[in-house]
What does this fold into?
Amino acid sequence: MNPPAILLCGHGSRDVEAVSEFEALAGHISRHLPERKVMHGFLEFARPTIGERLDDLRAGGATDILAVPGMLFAAGHAKNDIPSVLNDYAAKYDGFSIRYGRELAVDLKLLTAARERIAAAEVEAGDSISRAETMLVVVGRGTNDPDANSNVSKVARMLWEGMGFGWTETCYSGVTQPLVADALERVVRLGFRRIIVFPYFLFTGILVKRIYSAADALVEAHPDIEVIKAGYLNDHPLVIDAFLERLEEIPNGENLMNCQLCKYREQIIGYEKDQGAAQVGHHHHVEGIGTDADHGHGHHHDHD
It folds into this structure.
């Protein structure tokens, strides 16, 4: 009996570099699991789509799929959009099983990887300014799910306390507040000699590049403050290990997302109307429409 095939479900991006990095992730996992069929698909913009990859796996004889979201936190994409695609597909074919894993979440492996990315940026900048004189700014994706947003704050807090920075600020690239530019303008007033801007993202993309552009703009406006751009997580070995761990959880029945503060399960303050909302996808209009390389121009769409 063949072992279950693996499908990595990515958000997708208009940015070709971001798509390439996600493809590289699939390659890393495939090399760690040479006996398994490993494929990847995207929710929006990029191809192959998740549905196209499921077609490929089924055509190749696979009947049992372990699918994991290639995402840090469980917001609408991981909770609704990807499961909607997977459930609709599995319902069409008798004897075809798709078991879905959980997001990476707040994880010690990822915190360690984040620490190493930040420390590497410090080494490159030099040790003339101490951590006590340094402000750490952690930038999350930003969603309309307060539980996912709060996880970014927890990551920032643990990095701040664990690494001994003078202070930390959490902000987001979109959807929720505070946004990056607003947060950076505020933290400047606190008087720290150095500011480290750390995008807590898995991969590059339009949003990460905007974050770095905001850091560059801060340098121009305040040349007396040293601003360091730390690298995002990308293919850090501990990130790969975390994905492998999520895959191991599925057959063991340990792949449960934390639903304690999920706005679809509980009446979260300010989101009471979302409790019990139907699990449906919202990305059909951008599924597989291509990247900027395909069209030669950007798309006006809120998602990366």
